[in-house]
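User: Please run a holo structure prediction.
Assistant: Happy to. Please share the sequence and the ligand.
User: Here you go; the ligand is iron/sulfur cluster.
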Amino acid sequence: MRVPEIPEEGAPALRAGDPPAPAPVPARPLIRRSARAPRWRARLADHDAASLAELLRKAGGTASAARAVAGKVVRHAFGAEPGAERPAPAWDAAALAALGVGAWAHEALLALDPGLSLEVAERAPSEDDTLRLVLRARDGALIESVLIPGPARTTLCVSSQVGCARACAFCETGRLGLARQLAAGEIVDQVRIAQALALAEGQARRGAPLRNLVFMGMGEPFDNLGEVLKAIRLLTDPRAFRFAPSHVTVSTVGVADKIEAFFREARAELAVSLNAPDDARRQAIMPVNARFSMAALKEALARSLPPGRRVLFEYVLFDRYNDAPDDADLLAAYVAGLRCRVNVIPCNPGPDPALRPPSAERLDAFVARLSGHGVTTLVRRPRGRDVGGACGQLAGMARVRQPAPA
Ligand code: SF4
């Protein structure tokens, strides 16, 4: 989920009845050299326990020995109490032997790099304690993560791609195009870096530990689902990072044909970015709707949502575009029959000046109308807006600093 820009005075207001609205923001030339992750020495954090066991089985172990060693290794390398320090693991033959790992597995394991794949290029602290991080990968690509402290727990907003191909009109990341996918280890390393920072900040300010992850940073997670799922498996592994699956949320723009696979493979929560109450207006700001209509999206959710689970719809509110009382009625009708909540998000400054934040009165009226239909409705207040770290703003810094195409 991401969002828009402070409107210029006198910019024309968009109304529900108007023809499909804001002109698509022209995407910058793709930075695409390859949409695949670059090759480098294989990293330990690119593996969850299952893929590590598979690697060890290919290295000559039996299936059961490979699984046992993989479990010991992820505990050694990544295991720590939430909120506790996670020192760099000892990583040599003596350390593996001390874990009880046989010599047969040493060469395959020690070929993996246990270090971080990212470094902090810039820290931008917000007035509201949010911390936007610009992180540099080993090939120079820049991504952003946002650390959001809360009274009970701290949340990290994680990126899943360098840039994004989905071109939503209200999103800075969408202007970049897709440069490449992030590897699972690069997703996990956003968490490792943020945990260390949250720990340091928490000790200084008695802040809450990092316990919440949201895949709402740069990129469409379902366009890199394999790596995202692998990262989630490691992050929720009780031997490794120990995040509760219910505290991990993946947000999609509605890539309907991946929803079933997501629920089959992950126990994490799903958020779907809706942002309009009908196809015409949704398609005008979210090109994905041309491929997957709202009806197709609803059908995929109804078919795939496991028993007892519910989906979180995100609805970014744009002044006089999708915030009329009638729009709340349409939205209520759309979500009827699905186990869900709706998160209403007043838009943030973004790339399209025609998409403006609603007034407090219009926001309140919309929320009251939607709640009046019996829809569980939440309002997400913006965090980190002053440093470009709120929804829709990520990539502002990255855009100007990405390495030039080869
Ligand atoms: S899918 Fe997400 S990151 Fe990509 S353009 Fe749309 S809102 Fe931005």
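The chain has two domains: 44-110, 118-401.
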